[in-house]
Amino acid sequence: MKLLLAAFIATLLHAAPPSPGQPSYEKANALFVAQKFAAALAAVEEALLLDPTLIPALTLQAKLAMAANRFDLANRSLERALALDPQAAYAQFLYGMTAYMNNEMKEALTRFRKARELSPKDPRVALYLGLSTESVGTPADALALYQEAIRFERAAGRPQADTLLPGARLLLLLGRLEECEAWLREAVKLSPSLRDAHFELARLLLKKGDPAQAAAEAELALTLSAGTALDPAIHYLLIRAWTQAGKPDRAALHAAVMRAEEK
Amino acid sequence: MLRFLPLLITAVATAAPPPIRFEEIAAQSGLRFELQNGEAGGFHQIELTLGGVAAFDYNNDGCTDIFFSNGAAIPSLRKTSPKFSNRLFRNNCNLTFTDVTTEAGLAGEGYAMAVATADFDNDGFADLFVAGVKGNTLYRNLGNGRFADARLATSDAVAPKWAVSAGWFDYDNDGWLDLFVANYVVWDAATEPRCGTPERQYYCHPNAYRGLPNQLFHNNHDGTFTDVSAASGIGRQIGKGMGISFADMDGDGLTDIFVANDSVRGLLFHNQGHGKFTEIGLEAGVALRDDGYAIAGMGADFRDLDNDGKPDLLVSGILNDSFLLFRNLGGKNGFEDYAQRTGLLMSTRQLTGWSLGMFDFDNDGWKDLFFALAHLMQLDRYLGRESALPNRVYRNLGGQRLEDVSSTAGLAFQSPAAHRGAAFADFDNDGKVDVVVTAVNGPAKLFRNVTAAPSHWLALRLRGVRSNRQGLGAKIHIRLADGRDLYNHSTTAVGYASSSEPLVRFGLGAQPAASLIEIQWPSGRLQKLTNVAADRVLDVTEDGPP
Predict the structure, then answer these.
(1) What's this model's pTM, rounded to 2 decimal places?
(2) Is A239's CB within 8 Å of B333's CB?
(3) Distance between CA B196 and CA B426 in Å, rounded?
């Protein structure tokens, strides 16, 4: 007991003093979450002025640069962070993201693999390593990574629809329709207001020969705002679904909307 | 010994067919041409998209000749050096070629992109239309080995845009070929957008450029043309046109048009008759990829892949697009995605395709696929690998599956390059379809088909009387003794920026004859031939009164 107490006291004595930049960083982070990017940038620069070695501030600076499509600046911040602490897993993940978002897949793979070594159970790393792997043409490996990402999230009790969707899309491309449907049904259940989940489910149902249900899902997707599926893509699906369902008038309505938007 | 007989029979019955094979013979045959894009570090968009090539018999000697379009200096767009010359090579009928550019008068001028061949004046000699950047040229074949610039004879000057493809077809079935020109984007060297940073410049995405309408020119029967783009409805649609292809998709006797567009949706112009077209790409289900994404459409071919009598549509795209294959369901049912089921979708996902063609390379009765490939230049850094690619050939397995057989197609076939245009013809008259392919800043390739399959074949060389002289647009149905039905149609508009022979070819497999040949001429006349022996080029003149 005495030994444990001595160790605890020693830990306290040797603990790093709080960073002088910490309050500014916390303020910057709150502003970033509130999407007040200009103010966040000013605060994070203040934090780094007070403590140039503050790694969370460097990663936040990188995120702000990425939000402004300045991947060169983001890389500079992240390289500084990783030089200070090569084990900084989140900085390494973001370093992979800059390459991925810049479409530099070879570099993205290298960086995400390193991130995976540092944080082997991070679902985000598995997901983006999977996306990069799929981009360079190895779908089987990509699918295994998507499955891993989902496994990590389930183990943590936080499965995400956004993590299920890339795998479901790949399963659809591979023609593995039953597995795809299971993933998509789960995604819809997890995020019933996510248009991407309904849109992908509609694509699957059309592929499976159920145009009426496909049309119903796609019409629902059109009414939802959350997600990245674009209106024209949904309209295009609806044209085909309603045509196959024997309702050309409804198909024509969607074609008219698309043509009007093209002008 | 007898006990092994069933095994032997099984082995023979299931033996793999001989591989589709090509040998590359350009240099040894005297076909020495290097496509020059004139690049000088300026990252001008036009440097990416040139390379049209034509396979046509300009002197009617029965041996298919080759015309190459070529680039020019930038920004002048002038052919400031002989290296920029367009070139015509005469086929000497012995697998050698002679450069006859000068005597033919075809060296050309300007920055050429594409070529379309057909006998537009019905004089029996195939003419040339060369499309390019801010300048198109119509050459009339004088029949004496020379070509005359026919621009002055046109009643409507072909407006100087940036054309990437062109094609000849008879949209109103009046017996005279009309001209369709696919235009790409608004471009000017001085005002072109710049992308990247001064230290790290790259080619801009097509989104940085404004698209253009396509053009349709009606043949006035006197060597002049009228621009009917507006009146026909063709000019109403803005796109970024690349490859074009023609087919009568709904069997109504009128030729329809598909235009592959770069990063905007594909256009399908349905020929309504009376000189009017309606764009129905969305309704027909060929406008976009299955997920609603507009691929960077490049080459296109519009032929019957599954021998059901309805032309299907093939479109190439760029890395991570996957190539598109649409199966024609007939009539109002439109088209369905067929790339996934046939295996083409995933196997082309890592490719960038330019010209292409659906031709039966092993003469087994099923049209195979050929793709001229290369990633966009300067992408090496992003890809982590070379942008030059070898071409690919896919065997058609009964219209159900497409098998990539490139690895067994010959050693020279594996050679990467910045491939672009491709034209298809039987250059050595051995009954097998060969391919000539261009490569940016590299030598052209002539892939001689040396597939060892013992299959029979038949080629139809059509001569229209009421229809246009070459019978372009004619639809042919062949019935074999084993009950199989084969379909094809006559067109020179194939792939990307290129023009192929007008002959209509069929592989007959083991059948030494066609029981029945039905030719549906553009004039509407149906002509039937019975019990036609195989392994020859059959000259067919449209019967009935002119």
Answers:
(1) 0.91
(2) no
(3) 45
